[in-house]
Give the backbone structure.
Amino acid sequence: MRKIAVVTGTRAEYGLLYWVIKKIHKAPELELQLIVTGMHLSPEFGLTVRKIEKDEFPITERVEMLLSSDTESAISTSMGLGMIGFAKAYERLRPDILLVLGDRFEILSTVAAAIPFRIPIAHIHGGESTTGSMDEQFRHAITKMSHIHFASTEKYKNRIAQMGELPERIFCFGSPGLDNIYKLELKKKRELFEEIGIPCNKKIGIVTYHPVTLDKNSAKEQIKELLNSLDRFKDIFWVFTMPNADTEGRSIISAIEAFTRKRLANGKAFTSLGSLNYLSLLKYSSIMVGNSSSGLLESPSFKLPVVNIGDRQDGRTRSINIIDIKECRKDNIEAAIEKALGEEFEIGLKGMENIYGAGNASEKIVEKLKTMSLDSNLIKKRFYDISNISVA
């Protein structure tokens, strides 16, 4: 039986991986080794490991690595603790393939620790770009340490090849996170709104704003500008989802908590909504504001207007529902929100399709994990020269 170790460290990442994990767990020829780490194990970030337990997936290993601080030193130290913890896990589990997703520092520790164990690494969502975040460097480093690549678009597939990865090991199956939209039965509006405690008689706006980690000491001023702009739109109830455990993230959390305490009739913050509630909320919302990757990946499936702020998501392929504003300034944000809520913009989104796939990526990824040859050639990395690539 082929052992597949899957690592998850955040609520968002787990949501993207859910159907992949489920299909691995149900496949008779595969053994799921689920490793939980990072924010999942932190009470400060909602202790979302409970959601995994509720889904009845067996957790094989828990790797504690996250310090209760968001300084540069704390993030680097957490990465070191992660490598120690994953080394111990791999010594015991000896997986045949390690499957990871994305670009966070937890995943960099995950794959770096696997190299000495000669574990083949499969990476989902490589080749993408987020130039305003240190995740940019993490993602490409993870790609170069990986042996099997699952890209979400043809453009990203070509980028991975440009990095010298062998074309026969790069597969374009779309984003597995979209599978949730097509496979889950989304909640009815009244049921959802009553459960999470938001009003049914107002327009809903979703706000997720992460630190732009390459802009030092910028988070406090940026979140101030964002919140001041939202305050103008009294007819919208703002639902905030809290940022990840990144440098300067706590200043954003504090500002959001203060904002919602003073405006109980106009906003509410959640540490974690869970995938089902979050996707259901996207269906019934009028707008999304912030700099989350969800605005680019999942929102197009709902034809939801998105105001994307700053350069955190620069380099990612966009659908026509995205309105980009470069500077996080009150007047820029207000103008973009007005445009996004306008009738002309709404009409322009009719008939749009999500460029990140049609909700069948998980089946294709798991089938490839079943059939991929694990001979000695897989673990030996070779550089594929760019001159041999025909770029689309």
User: Anything to note?
Assistant: Residues 2-173+360-386 form a domain with the Rossmann fold fold (CATH 3.40.50.2000). Residues 79 and 204 are 37 Å apart (CA to CA).
